[in-house]
Amino acid sequence: MELTPVIKAATDLWSSLRPTSPTRKYKLPPMLPGGVPVLGHALEMGKDPIALIQRGRDMFGDIFSMRLPGRPTVVMTGHRAQEKYFRLRDTEVDQREVYRFTVPVFGEGIAYDAEPEIMREQLGFFHAALRESRLRTYVAGFVAEAEDYFGKWGDEGVVNMLEVGNELTIYTSSRSLLGEEFRTHLSAEFAALYHDLEAGMNTLSLFAPRFPSPSHIRRDRARVKLGEMLGGIVEERRRKGTQSEDFMQTLLDATYKDGRELSPEEITGLLLTIMFAGHHTSGVTFAWTAVNIARHPHIAASLIAEQESVLGDRTDMTLEDVRSMNYLEWTIKECLRMYPPLIMLMRKSLVDLDFGGYDIPAGTMMMASPSVGQRIPSIFADPHRFDPERYGPGREEDKRSPYGHIAFGGGRHRCMGIVFAQLQLRALWSHLLRNFEFELADPPSSYVIDYSNIIAGPHPPCRVRYRRKPAKVTGRGTRVRSAS
Ligand code: HEM
Fold it and tell me: Taking 50 as the threshold, does the pLDDT of residue 18 lie above it?
């Protein structure tokens, strides 16, 4: 990657966010020592962002400042600071500047590029897609995808769970959100174009989203083709009046408050927005679940016992079944606590704010960090230990503060896909637990966090060894291979 244009673009961006009241005397949060001229703490951040934020917390507690190119950023961790952060209103903080890098992918006038009122209406359409009645259909889709995908695995082998997670979640999400015809006929072409879109959202894009780098050029070409592909389906469905149980249908049926229908470009943009929001985040969580199940045989044993008690020899699975898998829920929640896919969340303050006796001037970048915030011992006992039972009866450590477990964010912009993501992960893992056994394929120390992507997952290749369980013989002498 060429660094000079990145540094210049970064400096321009941060400089454009100068506080609006330069004459007022502010009591700013303490500044983290270290860093270098111009880039501030950016190099340390590039190497290990979590160690940097933890260093600040260890020195100063809930609030401190650090320098990213050109300007200070305030970092807020700890449940009181997190509560303050997530309860801020849209009139007090802005996300649009921070998520500017998504505009070439989602499209102009979509989500973070729309006027605040339109963005609110667009996010409202997502609610309709993720409502209870739709979830029932989605669960059936998750189960069908799992049966199809894992049915092709051999009796034993070694797989890269990061690849498996990303592939599977793109199948499940495209089926539920883009629609059956898309999943059946256009998967391969879609996957290739989607890959180019994804590769075009990188560190450079954070600072210079329109810089004509090779990956950005490929991203823009893929976006045009995807627009044509999705737009074609939208127009065909409108012409034929087809009805389906997917998010595309929700958008086809939706209207803005002024009665206007969504254009094919808007539908395409919103479909890509929701796909991106839920794809890698779920994909890396799937992979961490594999690593932790393979690493902790006693947890695997409890999970298998739960599968037996919820499903027994049944091969069908309902929304209610998936919802009653508590131990699986805690295990995934624990993966998200220790290995949140979004390690830093950002906002820009629009007005002067304060916390803990310090001022946060308008125009300051403000950061919360699920990675550091979810490993604070006053909320999560022995926080570096993987322990799903901390969420169980009698302990319920996640209930100590509504802003303690923040892998899905918090407040008004809390993730809208929480239930979708949880059901998807539980449905996939239910199938795997009933049909396979797992162990790590590499030394435990090689499963570390990879910070090189915007969404942090296990460092590739994340290899896990699987072995298919023998088919069960039931009381009636029938051989049952559960769910496949
Ligand atoms: C394990 C999986 C997931 C994780 C860890 C995750 C995490 C997050 C986080 C941290 C935010 C808040 C961002 C911020 O405050 O700046 C967020 C927002 C959002 N997520 Fe997720 N997400 C996941 C899956 C999904 C899925 C599957 C969907 C949709 C199907 C989805 C849709 C959204 C949307 C629409 C928002 C924006 C909400 C708003 O701004 O009001 N997410 N997610």
Answer: no
Domains of the chain: 1-101+343-373 (3.30.43.20), 107-339+377-480 (1.10.630.10)
Q: How far apart are the C-alpha atoms of 407 and 344, rounded to whole Å?
A: 10
Q: DSSP state, 465?
A: E
pTM, two decimal places = 0.90
Q: Give the Å distance between the CA of 409 and the centre of ligand 1.
A: 8
CA distance 458 to 162: 7
Question: For residues 260 and 253, is the Cβ–Cβ distance under 8 A?
Answer: no
Residue 67 belongs to what H/E stretch?
A: strand 63-68
Taking CB atoms within 8 Å and a gap of at least 24, the contacts of 191-196 are 193/222, 193/225, 193/226, 193/229, 194/170, 194/222, 194/226, 194/275, 196/221, 196/222
Cβ 126 under 6 angstroms from ligand 1? yes
Instruction: Tell me the pLDDT band of 483, cut-offs 50, 70 and 90.
Output: very low
Q: How far from chain centre, in Å, is Cα 442?
A: 26
Sheet holding 71-76, edge to edge: 63-68, 71-76, 365-368, 345-349, 93-94
CA-CA distance, 183 to 170, in Å (whole number)?
9
Q: Give the separation between CA 106 and CA 201, rounded to whole angstroms.
A: 11
Task: Please state, in angstroms and rounded to a whole number, the distance separating the CA atoms of residues 210 and 100.
Answer: 10
**Exposed, middle or buried by CB within 10 Å (0-12, 13-18, 19+), for 342?**
buried
Distances 76 to 67, 107, 358, 372 between C-alpha atoms, Å: 14, 31, 12, 10
CB of residue 281 inside a 6 A radius of ligand 1? yes
CA pair distance 174, 266, nearest whole angstrom: 17
Compute the radius of gyration of the chain from its Cα atoms: 23
pLDDT band at 21 (very low <50, low <70, confident <90, very high): low
Specify whether the CB–CB gap between 309 and 290 falls below 8 A. Answer: no
Give the separation between CA 105 and CA 273, rounded to whole angstroms.
8
Backbone angles phi, psi at 189, to 5 degrees: -65, -40
Average pLDDT estimate for 239-253: 85
Nearest-atom number in ligand 1 for the CA of 345 is 16
Q: Which atom of ligand 1 is nearest to the CA of 346?
A: 16
Q: In 3D, which of 83, 37, 32 has the Cα closest to residue 59?
A: 32
Cβ atoms of residues 263 and 114 within 8 Å: no
Distance separating alpha carbons of residues 194 and 196, to the nearest angstrom:
5
Q: pLDDT of 160-177, one tens digit each?
A: 999 999 999 988 988 888
Q: What atom of ligand 1 comes closest to residue 95's alpha carbon?
A: 16
User: Going by C-beta distance under 8 Å and a sequence separation of 6 or more, which residues neighbour residue 262?
Assistant: 125, 251, 252, 254, 255, 256, 270
| Top mutation candidate among 110, 345, 415, 424 for ligand 1, by most atoms within 8 Å of CB | 415
